[in-house]
Amino acid sequence: MAPQFSLAHLTVLHSTPPEMVSIAARTGYRWVGLRVTAVTPDEPIYPLMRDRAMMKETLARMADTGVGVLDIELARMDAATEPEAYLPLLEVTAELGSQDIIAQLPDADRERATERFARLCDLAKPFGIHVNLEFVSWTQTPDVASSVAVLSAVNRSNAGLLVDTLHFSRSGCRLEELKNLPKEWFRVAQLCDAPAQAPATVEGLIHAARNDRKLLGEGGLAVRDIVEAMPATTRYSLEIPNLTLEGVIGAEEFSRRAIRTAESYLQGVHEAALMSYSMV
User: Fold this and answer.
1) To pair with 67 at 20 to 30 A between CA atoms, which of 15, 30, 200, 227?
2) Cβ neighbours of 125 (radius 10 Å)
3) Per the database record, which ranges form the Xylose isomerase-like TIM barrel domain (predicted)?
């Protein structure tokens, strides 16, 4: 069985949630991932928790097309943000029929960050929602090891690890770090490619991550190896923002190229992993 893919919002961030659902349906995606909170002050925001007209249209297009919502982002808990601030995000996630949110912990106080992550998991539990911790190379939770420390400490059944192939590579993580982790931690992974050589500055890392990722097979990251190191049940979200190419060919054609290159690049890898997984 060929893998199914989700279209991450960062890939086409200037498309509204209803537009994304329609683009995903026309280009072959099973799901979309929606961003309902702004991460930077100058990016578009789609607050479905307040914009009921947009929520109604999003739900209508989902019903018409069969495209679902894989995940909702972003619960980003820095030093000033308590998990209760994301209760509206959890409510939106449940209304959209998703069971996964993405969280980040850019907080240098490890004890506080861990305690807040545990509380977010507890808030999400009654909604039937899993909290997927994403590590980002330039934050205070930069890699697999720091994420595993948080997940092990909170010991919540609805907590998991989100691997983004760009951040995995830029953080210098090793494949061996993934192979012995609990399989139930891996629900969603974000895939992209990029040059093997990382930018030399934090500003360069952020710019490349938000604006200049590469389609699978067009960079120098070991994406196949990372995919093979995760359970075959992991679902794949294509997070591949490339403002230059998208600006030339448009959001829909860029989304189409993203999924077609992913299908070609991962041909055989997912099937082999499924076979291996079924024998365990």
Assistant:
1) 227
2) 16
3) 23-243
What are the structural domains of the chain? Answer: 5-278 (3.20.20.150)
Give the type of residue at 10: L
Q: What is the mean pLDDT of the chain?
A: 94
Closest CA to 149 of 138, 141, 139, 157: 141
Residue type, 57: E
Query: Could you tell me if 255 and 208 are in contact, meaning their C-beta atoms sit under 8 angstroms apart?
Result: no
pLDDT of residue 3: 86
Q: What average pLDDT does the segment 212-222 reach?
A: 97
- The single residue listed with the structure tokens 């539990």 is 125
132 has a pLDDT exceeding 70: yes
Is 242 strand, coil or helix?
A: strand
- State the burial class of residue 84 (Cβ atoms within 10 Å of its Cβ: 0-12, 13-18, 19+): exposed
| DSSP 8-state assignment for residue 34 | E
The tens digit of pLDDT for each residue in 80-101 reads 999 999 999 999 999 999 999 9
With beta carbons less than 8 A apart as the criterion, state whether 22 and 61 touch.
Answer: yes
Chain-centroid distance, C-alpha 240: 11
State the alpha helices, DSSP H only, in the chain: 17-27, 52-65, 87-95, 110-124, 144-154, 165-170, 176-179, 202-211, 223-229, 243-249, 251-265, 269-278
Q: Which are the contacts of 269, defined by CB distance < 8 A and separation ≥ 6? A: 224, 227, 228
Least confident of 88-97, 214-223, 265-274: 265-274
Q: Is the pLDDT score of 279 beyond 50? A: no
Nearest C-alpha neighbor of 157 from the set 192, 193, 130, 139:
130
